[in-house]
Amino acid sequence: MRLNSYITFNGNCEDAMNFYKDIFDGEFTTYMRFHEAPGDAFPVPDFAKDLVMHCTLEFSDCTLMASDTLNGDELKVGTNISLSINAAENEAASIYNSLLEGGQSLMPFEDAFWGGKFGIIRDKFGIQWMVSSEHKPA
Fold this sequence. Notes:
Layout: E1 2-9, H1 13-24, E2 27-33, E3 52-59, E4 62-68, E5 81-87, H2 89-100, E6 104-111, E7 117-122, E8 128-133
Parallel strand pairs: 1-4, 5-8
Antiparallel strand pairs: 1-5, 2-3, 3-4, 6-7, 7-8
C-alpha cells in the first residue's frame, strides 16, 4: 500500500509541476492530458483538452501527483490537496467503504479506464481521499 499527496490546480498544473520538477530534480513517470482520455470516459470541455488530466513526479523516495480541475470555480487554493492511496483491489474497496462512513462519495469506487478501480471521497473530517486499486495489466 502506498500513500501520496495529490494537488489539484486551476489550469496551471503544467507550470507548477515543471517548477517542482526543477527544484527537486525529479522525473515525470506519468503525464496525460484530458484529450488523451477515451472519448466515452467523461465529457471534456474544449477549454480543457490540453490541460493536465494526471501527472506523477518522482524524486528521491517521494511521489507528487497532480492534475488540473474541470471546475475551476469550485477550487479553493489551500484546500486543493488530496491524499491518494493505492492498494490491492479488496483492500482498496474496504478502505473506500470505511472512509465513506459519515462522509460523502464524490466519485464511486468503480472500474477506471486506465485499469483497476478508482473513487474519491470526502471523509467525515473534510479530508478528500482518492482510492485506487493496483492496476495489473494483462
